Amino acid sequence: MVIAIDIGNTNIMFGFFVDGELIDTLRIATDSGRTSDEYRLMLLQFLDFENLSHEIEDFTISSVVPSLTPVFRAVSKKLAGREPILVGADLPIGITFAVDEPQHVGADRICDIFQAHKLFPDENVVVVDFGTATTFSVITKNGIFLGGPITIGILPASTELFRRTAQLPRIELVKPKSAIGKNTVEEMQSGVIYGFGGLVDRLIEHIEEEIKEGVKVIGTGGISHLMEGVSKRIEMFDKLLTIKGLFSIYEFVKGNTY
After folding, report:
1. Catalytic choice (37, 48, 58, 108)
2. What InterPro entries does this protein map onto (predicted)?
3. Which domains are delineated in the chain?
């Protein structure tokens, strides 16, 4: 078994791969205070609960939380007996980074563009990842990462709307019945959900204007489903794109190293 771990600011996603197939996933809240032993025991308990094998061949890690990277390196060394493959712009994966500071490109974005390019090698692709931040990652059909806009995430935006106002309530993030809304909750849901849909579509237009070509748009992230039927430009949704990309990078590196 190979375990892929995507360490995000809000959640940590684990993907369990056997013979190249994703057989199970686990999502937990990110907690920088946990030790490697705690995370190791948590993983083993999950494997027992799901009746999965403890025979772990390897780990591959994507992390945007630097303090947790050594924690999970220790988990890998204890459970697999080796260092994990760590995703970063310095890892040779056949992608050209046409940005000013490649070392600052988030590992999750690298996983996103790698998988997008693998799925659609003959098209320009924009991956919109709805997480703590909403990121737009542009990769050309020639395998060149051009960068992409970054803005606030849907959940933090709705949370701040509640926190910064005296009379607006905390809302559930669901698609409202109408864009206009008939009460405060529906009106806030509309502003957040349809507002982000409009933001996505307009930024895609700007991207196409800049590169002077059309793009295919993929939506991913835990709450990307909120954009289904809202964004007119997102053609495909896959919540697990990042974890699949992380494993695809692992396969690529292993195939080119061993």
Report:
1. 108
2. ATPase_NBD, Type_III_PanK
3. 2-86 (3.30.420.40), 96-241 (3.30.420.40)
